[in-house]
Amino acid sequence: MHADLHTTRERLRAGLAGAPAEIEQAIAIAQSPACEHVFLKTRFEAARAEAADGANAARPLAGLAVSIKDLFDAAGETTAAGSVVLADAPPATRDCPAVARLRAAGGVVIGRTNMSEFAYSGVGINPHFGTPANAADPKQPRIPGGSSSGAAVSVATGAAFIGLGSDTGGSIRIPAALNGIVGFKCTASLVPLDGALPLSTTLDTVCAMTRSVRDAMLAHEILSARPLTRSNAPLSSYRLAVPATLMLDGLDPTVARAFERSLQALRAAGAAISQIELPEIRDVATVLAGGGFSAAESYAWHRKLLARDGERYDPRVRFRIEKGAAMKAWEYLDLVVARRAWIARMEQAMRGFDALLSPTVPMVAPLIAGLAPGSERDAEFMRVNPLLLRNTSVVNVLDGCAISIPCQAAGELPVGLMLWHGALHDDTILNIAQQAEAALAPASRDQ
């Protein structure tokens, strides 16, 4: 794993490195085979000039490289959302708030990253621009996870310290888990959605991936424009729970081993962990029957584009968007009410716990070849995609917050441990995650 942002920033401030040299290293990685299909547009010359600006040195991001998902407006650039359909759209006239805040903090944008078309998949396949290969396995091309596929690989390879992305059903946490990095999904209301092409206006969240929890905390402070309430309280001061319903079903053996090993390490560090049923989780499928918010709200946004250019969409994405055409107004309004009632039941059931623990996804990254574009592989894609989204999407429906941190042993494919809770528990989740990250590190080294 490459050094995290904090470590690199300390080296810069100690005079042991310079931002221009760090940017050159990021550019070299971005141009390497490891980042094939990762960037849809690069801005290396502008990045060099910005890194050379000495004023950046005192800022939180210190003139270091960040990447932005092709979902966000950046002044002078077209926001195409990983699609050919919007390739000729007029360029943005200004940065969206998330990009503006990263730049104001000294972040140097080196490029726009690839993604599942219109952010509508947890797999990360893109038939238009190619699929970035997972950073964890150089021997066999594996899926990066999606929809923030390029963002994850840019961080995992060392091309960027922060990968700006979005999370509607797991699009930050899934690729973070599969690539062995950290992905934090904040409470959706904490970061403005302005200037981000929507998938679901109800569920969309603007957030980021990093290489450490402390970097995730800094990135969240910048994106949310608010200071965290930080705590060094030990794990023993928190009450944690593992929900048994659904989230532990059908785990890949590597995931099952890593998750159990993680619980053991956390208990050894003093954590009190209870297993609870939390049967309310099973109701998510009922709440989202018929495509849920994503299908209805994406169809409302895409219907004119589909009428004009539907044949140019990724067929798998088009199929899922068009499911929203069948939803009636009363069904959508019933969905809003059902979600509100479900959140209330979940909040009551989670009362007394500071965080819940689950595997981020139930599998390690499958090979790209088995899920690549092609009708003969559609059935496997339709099987894998909902599995990848199964655990993470619960938090989006909850309007909650969650973080995925690596928990695999050395030599294993990446596995994510997800810590989560309801809305506005962000600071507690991040503080617990920092303690958990430290507790898991020895177990990871010793295996």
Radius of gyration: 20 Å
Q: Please report the first level of CATH classification, the CATH class.
A: Alpha Beta
Question: How would a textbook summarize the main sheet?
Answer: 11 strands, mixed
Total number of strands: 11
Give average pLDDT, whole number: 96
For the record, give the distance between the C-alpha atoms at the N and C termini, rounded to a whole number: 17 Å
Description of the molecule:
With 447 residues, this protein is of the alpha/beta class. It has a single domain (5-287, 316-446), classed as Amidase signature (AS) domain (Amidase signature (AS) enzymes, Alpha-Beta Complex). Helices cover 39% and strands 13% of the residues. The protein has 14 helices and eleven strands. It has helices spanning 5-13, 19-30, 44-51, 97-104, 149-157, 173-179, 213-224, 253-268, 283-287, 292-309, 315-322, 329-350, 378-397, 426-446; strands spanning 39-42, 65-69, 108-113, 162-166, 182-185, 206-210, 239-243, 272-276, 355-359, 401-406, 416-421. The chain has an eleven-stranded mixed sheet, with helices on both faces. Helix 8 (253-268) packs across helix 14 (426-446). The model has no long low-confidence stretch (mean pLDDT 96). This is Amidase. Residues 37-430 form the Amidase domain.
